[in-house]
């Protein structure tokens, strides 16, 4: 499935192999994004609900979630600020202080919109255990010194009582600089607590890994990305559009889907609010399958 050679990971799920420099030049020089005035995302802030004792999922915008399972508070891909080359289009619904105690921080891969130094450093004082992909400890030690770091390989897990955190494949890749492509593994997570199972994909394009994951896990809720898909000739290898995300949801055999990775940063050429409106049209035909969260909204599970 994957190899690690000369300091780099290679896999059938490395989507960067299908992207050439000519594709990037074509996108940057010749593609013209649609002119459009986007409707900003709705925000919801409810500190009382955020600090309840029941299990919940809270979408913090983009790919950032706060999930509480069995009293453990888990923060996924926390990014609260502007990132290199991109400004936030909506404010973060809660301050770092308002998030309260954090037991675990999970990072899916090294791209800046999923692994932000400023956001992670703001969490050091909360003394979380940080779970990351293989070969990411060195980077995390620089970002979050004196913090407990645990690495996971695909289909390996960490157990804390009835809480089980597993790392699973994604069809994507990783990089932070010019010379570090795929030096760190990439993927998503499965969170299991008793009979509840939540899948967080991280960044991924469409692929056979969804069926593979479904063979290993019975998923109740799938957190799936629906944005950053245009132009298709290059972004299809990196991300999913809403139609592909709903197809992935079907392959996963999950009970419900929560869309993410949209409306927060203008990463690609589609209008900022297009992924949501497209996904809403799909969901109108499947009203019991897709659950839309406002940024900051809390869903009991």
How is this structure best described in words?
- With 301 residues, the protein is of the alpha/beta class.
- 20% of the residues lie in helices and 24% in strands.
- Strand 7 (129-133), helix 4 and strand 8 (149-152) form a beta-alpha-beta unit.
- It is globular, with a radius of gyration of 18 Å.
Key structural traits:
301 residues; alpha/beta; Metallo-beta-lactamase, Chain A; six-stranded mixed sheet; 8 helices; 15 strands; globular
What fold name goes in the CATH topology slot? Answer: Metallo-beta-lactamase, Chain A
Query: Mean pLDDT, rounded to whole units?
Result: 95
| CATH homology-level superfamily | Ribonuclease Z/Hydroxyacylglutathione hydrolase-like
> Helical stretch count?
8
Strand order of the largest sheet: 8-7-6-5-4-3-15
Which CATH-level-2 architecture?
4-Layer Sandwich
Distance between the termini: 33 Å
**Number of E-state strands:** 15
Give the H and E element order: EEHHEEEEHEHEEEEEHEHHEHE
Domain count, please report it.
1
Per CATH, the class reads Alpha Beta
Shape assignment = globular
Provide the β-strand percentage band. 15-25%
* Low-pLDDT segments: none
How does the major sheet shape up? 7 strands, mixed
Helix content: 10-25%
**Helix/strand class:** alpha/beta
Radius of gyration: 18 Å
């Amino acid at each position: 499935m994957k190899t690690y050679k000369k300091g780099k990971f290679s896999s059938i799920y490395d989507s960067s192999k299908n992207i050439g420099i000519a594709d990037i030049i074509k996108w940057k020089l010749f593609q013209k994004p649609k002119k459009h005035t986007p409707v900003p995302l709705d925000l919801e802030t409810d500190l009382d609900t955020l600090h309840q004792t029941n299990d919940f999922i809270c979408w913090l915008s983009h790919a950032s979630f706060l999930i509480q399972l069995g009293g453990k508070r888990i923060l996924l891909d926390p990014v609260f600020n502007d990132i290199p080359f991109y400004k936030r289009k909506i404010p973060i619904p809660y301050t770092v202080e308002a998030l309260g105690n954090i037991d675990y921080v999970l990072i899916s891969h090294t791209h800046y919109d999923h692994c932000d130094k400023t956001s992670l450093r703001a969490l050091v004082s909360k003394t979380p255990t940080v779970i990351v992909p293989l070969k990411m400890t060195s980077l995390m030690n620089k970002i979050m010194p004196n913090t407990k770091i645990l690495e996971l390989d695909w289909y390996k897990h960490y157990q804390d009582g009835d809480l089980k955190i597993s790392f699973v494949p994604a069809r994507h890749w990783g990089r932070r600089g010019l010379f570090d492509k795929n030096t760190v593994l990439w993927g998503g997570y499965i969170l299991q607590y008793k009979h509840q199972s939540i899948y967080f994909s991280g960044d991924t394009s469409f692929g056979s890994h969804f069926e593979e994951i479904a063979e290993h896990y019975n998923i109740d809720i799938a957190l799936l990305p629906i944005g950053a898909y245009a132009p298709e000739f290059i972004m299809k290898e990196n991300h999913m559009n809403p139609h592909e995300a709903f197809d992935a949801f079907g392959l996963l055999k999950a009970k419900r889907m929560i869309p993410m990775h949209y409306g927060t940063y203008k990463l690609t050429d589609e209008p900022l609010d297009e992924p949501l409106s497209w996904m809403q049209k799909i969901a109108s035909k499947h009203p019991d399958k897709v659950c839309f969260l406002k940024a900051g909204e809390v869903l009991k599970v």
